[in-house]
Specification:
The protein is of the alpha/beta class. It is globular and about 40 Å long. Helices cover 26% and strands 19% of the residues. The termini are far apart. The longest helix is centred in the N-terminal third of the chain and has 12 residues. The strands form 2 sheets. The chain has a 5-stranded mixed β-sheet, sandwiched between helices. Strands 4-5-6-7-8 form a 5-stranded mixed β-sheet. A hairpin with a 2-residue loop joins strand 4 and strand 5. The C terminus is likely disordered.
Length: 280
């Protein structure tokens, strides 16, 4: 019933190499976690790799990646705005394209067309991924226009910071579209409570060049990392009659719905109990 799970199981049965990667990660340069915390979280979640794609920033991440040695593989791209929506640009050579931010020629005079980014990617042996396609908070999000876009290797169907409605709509729409789909975290806060998303890729990329090759091949699928936990969070609240649902006895975190204060049996069955600021 779950094509992503079925495909992962198929890899296990046939001994095929695969890689679980966060294709859309941010760092503290653009409001996300520090690189150290990003990699620590990735390792804890069982990820094999992370691709940093900070919005309009790449120098710090690229320089760190060139010096990095660790168990979680580290790739670098850059998120750029286009008139057809936001995209991630990945090229095989980090230096000087990413370390010197040579991609800035595209955004120096305003928001470029998608075709311009695709041309630059092709000229440098790179690849383009479309992100945030159904995020209505973004004025340039393409929504259903995504089906007519060309030159992109994949479209993001979900990320860990998008509102649930956007992700559900994107997953349902893109499942029948012409593009391969992927997912990532796009995490900008350690307090995110939504599902964690990543991408399952066939093969085992060792550098940006092999990552690009895998993306062009289209052998990748979105994966929800903590589906069970997110389902528990979506369960309806317990009946008011159950112990623990009435607020006021514990700390602030133990208080129930404030709108229900004062309802239900009163202690001692006696007179009215006031709940004003004076505590009387």
């Amino acid at each position: 019933k779950n094509p992503v799970l079925a495909r992962s199981l198929d890899f296990e049965l046939h001994g095929m190499r695969r890689m679980l990667i966060d294709l859309h990660a941010y760092t503290d340069v653009t409001g996300g976690p520090t690189l150290k915390n990003l990699l620590k979280a990735a390792a804890a979640e069982g990820l094999d790799a992370v691709c940093i794609a900070d919005p309009q920033a790449s120098a710090a991440a690229a320089k760190a990646a060139l010096e990095y040695e660790g168990d979680v593989k580290l790739f670098v791209g850059v998120e750029l705005p286009t008139r057809a929506g936001d995209v991630i640009l990945i090229v095989p050579e980090l230096d000087p394209f990413m370390t010197r931010e040579e991609w800035r020629q595209l955004v120096a005079l305003g928001v470029p067309a998608l075709e311009e980014v695709v041309e630059l990617a092709e000229a440098n042996g790179g690849v383009v991924l479309l992100v945030h396609p159904y995020d209505r908070r973004r004025k340039l999000a393409p929504r259903d226009r995504v089906f007519a876009l060309e030159g992109i290797a994949g479209v993001e169907c979900a990320n860990s910071t998008a509102e649930l409605g956007f992700s559900v709509f994107a997953i349902e729409s893109l499942a029948k579209g012409p593009h391969n789909v992927f997912a990532g975290s796009a995490t900008v806060s350690s307090k995110n409570r939504g599902s964690r998303w990543a991408t399952l890729m066939a093969g085992d990329a060792g550098d940006e060049a092999s990552l690009i090759e895998g993306l062009k091949a289209g052998e990748f699928w979105p994966v929800e990392l903590n589906a069970a936990e997110s389902r528990r969070q979506e369960r309806p609240p317990r009946d008011r009659g159950e112990r623990g649902d009435r607020g006021g006895r514990g700390g602030r975190g133990d208080r129930g719905d404030r709108g229900e204060r004062g309802r239900g049996p009163r202690p001692g069955g006696g007179g009215r109990r006031r709940s004003g600021r004076d505590g009387r």
